[in-house]
Specification:
By secondary structure, this protein is of the alpha/beta class. The chain folds into 2 domains: 335 residues, Alkaline Phosphatase, subunit A; 60 residues, Arylsulfatase, C-terminal domain. It has 12 helices and 17 strands. The two termini are 16 Å apart. About 2% of the residues have low confidence.
Amino acid sequence: MLTALAAAPAASMAQTRKPNFVFLFADDMGWGDVGFNGRKEWSTPNLDKLGREGTIFDRWYTACPLCAPSRAALMTGKYNIHNGVRNNSMDLPATEVTVAEALKAQGYRTALFGKWHKGRMADGGFLHPLDQGFDETFGYLDALHAWEHFPKKLWRGREEQPVKGYSCDLLADEAVRFIGENRNNPFLLYVPFIEPHFLIEAPEEDVARFKGKFSEKDPSKPFNANYAAMITRLDRAIGRIVAAIDQAGLGRDTVIVFTSDNGATFEKGNEGASNFHDSNRPFRGQKRSLEEGGIREPGIVRWTGHVPAGKRSTVPMHNIDILPTFVAAAGSKPDPAWKVDGANMLDVWLGRSNGPERTLFWDFRIEGVDMAAAMRGDHKLLVVGGHRSLYNVRTDPGERRTLGPEMPDLFKQLDGELKAWLATEVKR
């Protein structure tokens, strides 16, 4: 349910037009899969250029190390214990306000091209993204369909239609068209790609560049080469979208954000590719884990002339911050009735502030996993099966040296805050 946006504070940025927003979302990409974070085995020139033109955030966090909950938190600005999506089978409730609904109420044209990841409501149905603030959609509605990088059909709105091509190219085609058609109007363009999530497959011309470069369990099935090819193909697709923004003269009017839904996976469907490439390096953990490898993602923000260029920031960012920050950049603020958990980080993006003093939280107690975490500044309390460890993730990014005995007061504080936060879960 969408109520009126609260009036913008007087200190909001004055500008001649509201900025556009382009949110580029990779799927199961590790922090170490991109050149700007040190990858040498393949190149990501377009993402690296985006980072040079904007600010790279070394500590960008997802809300949950799993597809649907991660996306639900991004859409709502709320932790998963508050937005009703705890696992991949839950559908985002109609009562939740999405960033698309929030911006549409301010006159934005809104589009989603890519993976929605529907759940199931009690009656077996689901709520379509067209019913949650998006004016147009193209791509995948469910998770299994989104395994297909060479899809035969995709959903345009509520109608399935035949397609031919590689997934990220098809989505980039739509994004480029949308930018051209809406260059004179403020817009939100959300592009949740499916690379490099399994299936591990890429166009043969891209795979050929990497065949023989990596050892393979079975040379006839070069999954490690395919994985590298998926990321480089994705990089080119992202380059096309950014180029469309710049060629339309919209660079100074468009906030571009790039990150991933969660860390790289070591699951069977990945065929060992992320493991071989050590995609989450230098961190421990993977998708479905609250160690840094599961929740810490590559992150870039570019807004030409506004966000500092060529900067690396260590301020923790969280995907629940996207809704309040986008709304603030558009000149307003979320209605208190939405109960948004995220913070307006616009001044951090603009290089004016180091952000609020706050504790961030995570919960992953599903699928036989029992994990929770609380982070304040550089320190993170990680709870695994009831066992609590305190780490400094700046000096010990591999989470190997527990600090609980040396910092008992902070250990106790974070433990208490985490327990109190878990008790706020909204039962659905």
